[in-house]
Amino acid sequence: MIFTFDLHVCIYSSLSFPSDLNAVQMSSASAPEVLLEKVGRAGVITLNRPKAMNALNLTMTRLLYPQLKEWETDEQTDIVIIKGAGGRAFCAGGDIIAVTEAGKSGDPLAQDFFREEYVLNNTIGMYKKPYIALIDGITMGGGVGLSVHGRFRVATEKTVFAMPETAIGLFPDVGGGYFLPRLQGKLGMFLALTGFRLKGRDVQRVGVASHFVESQKISALELDLVGLRSPSNEDVSKLLESYQTQVTMFLGVHCIHLVHLVCSVEGILQNLNTDNSAFAKKQAETLARMSPTSLKITFRQLEQGAAMSLQDVLVMEYRLCQACMRGKDFYEGVRSVLIDKDHSPRWSPATLAEVSDHSVDQCFSPLGETDLRL
């Protein structure tokens, strides 16, 4: 198998989680966490936890799912637009701290959160009406699940995309096993394993976003979108294209042109370690910090997901997330990155060599009566 990252994209920053993704307590208790509005013939969703960077929690999922189902069959609703409040983030991820606490205590939230989030992801992926995600800001983890499966994803120069889950003992879920292996070459595998950040026009260039519009034009675009009457997907596409800015310059300063053979995570690391480029060295150092178990799970997840439907991928990913809830690395990763912030996780097992094929097989095993059903 050839690992080809044959794209010129730019390096922006090292892997990290947004600093206030775990600031759940900072959100106003009185403000609705999701604003659901009808504007003309458009359903407009605003994720409204700006102090927590619009991190997705179970309450929000339970508001979003029934409303999307209602608008899908409502003859007075033609399109759905989803955006984030606050100007910094579309949605920086899921409410990881709450899930961690639930997993430790045996609270059913550790099952319910993922189950209902994945059902929502599937609903977006199968949506019958134009679904437009305005990803004007940080878009990671759960925010990717709310956007990438929709037909239209509009990035701006403020967009920051990443799937950094291997740093916390998890894996790129919310359908990551479906969309990542479908990116050009083996770019998706690279993004999944390293948590590498893409920014601005690069998010559209690689196919994560469908369109790129300057942030200052988003408000005008939204007004024109809600003004459309009974639009087809083609009508929406034409409008988005009329706003799309052609960018000929890269937004960053370093470019990548990397081609490597890939047969395993160990093979990737070996190739990176024998490459003399500064970029390869940096990525090898990044992978060395990730959960070995997460890396092996993620590699197989994307290998299998490349030939699976979105629904089958989400079923697989529910099995994987529950395996992570039963394990140790997820709790250790969250402690290290989001709670104590010492960035010195003690993974178990500590090395790739210690992660057996049998232990990875078990993570993919069916859950019987508790399997996700879509």
UniProtKB/TrEMBL annotation:
Homology family: Belongs to the enoyl-CoA hydratase/isomerase family.
Annotated organism of origin: Gadus morhua (Atlantic cod)
GO molecular function: 3-hydroxyisobutyryl-CoA hydrolase activity
Protein name (Swiss-Prot/TrEMBL): 3-hydroxyisobutyryl-CoA hydrolase
Keyword Lipoprotein applies: no
Record's catalysed reaction(s): 3-hydroxy-2-methylpropanoyl-CoA + H2O = 3-hydroxy-2-methylpropanoate + CoA + H(+)
Function noted in UniProt: Hydrolyzes 3-hydroxyisobutyryl-CoA (HIBYL-CoA), a saline catabolite. Has high activity toward isobutyryl-CoA. Could be an isobutyryl-CoA dehydrogenase that functions in valine catabolism. Also hydrolyzes 3-hydroxypropanoyl-CoA.
Enzyme class: hydrolase
Any GO CC annotation of this UniProt entry: mitochondrion
CDD domains: crotonase-like
Pathway: Amino-acid degradation; L-valine degradation
GO terms for biological process, alphabetical: L-valine catabolic process
Record NCBIfam families: PRK05617.1
EC number: 3.1.2.4
Mitochondrion in keyword set: yes
UniProt gene name: HIBCH
UniProt domain Enoyl-CoA hydratase/isomerase: residue ranges: 43-364
Compartments (UniProt record): Mitochondrion
UniProtKB keywords: Branched-chain amino acid catabolism, Hydrolase, Mitochondrion
Pfam families, per database record: ECH_2 (PF16113)
InterPro entries from the UniProt entry: ClpP/crotonase-like_dom_sf (IPR029045), ECH_dom (IPR045004), HIBYL-CoA-H (IPR032259)
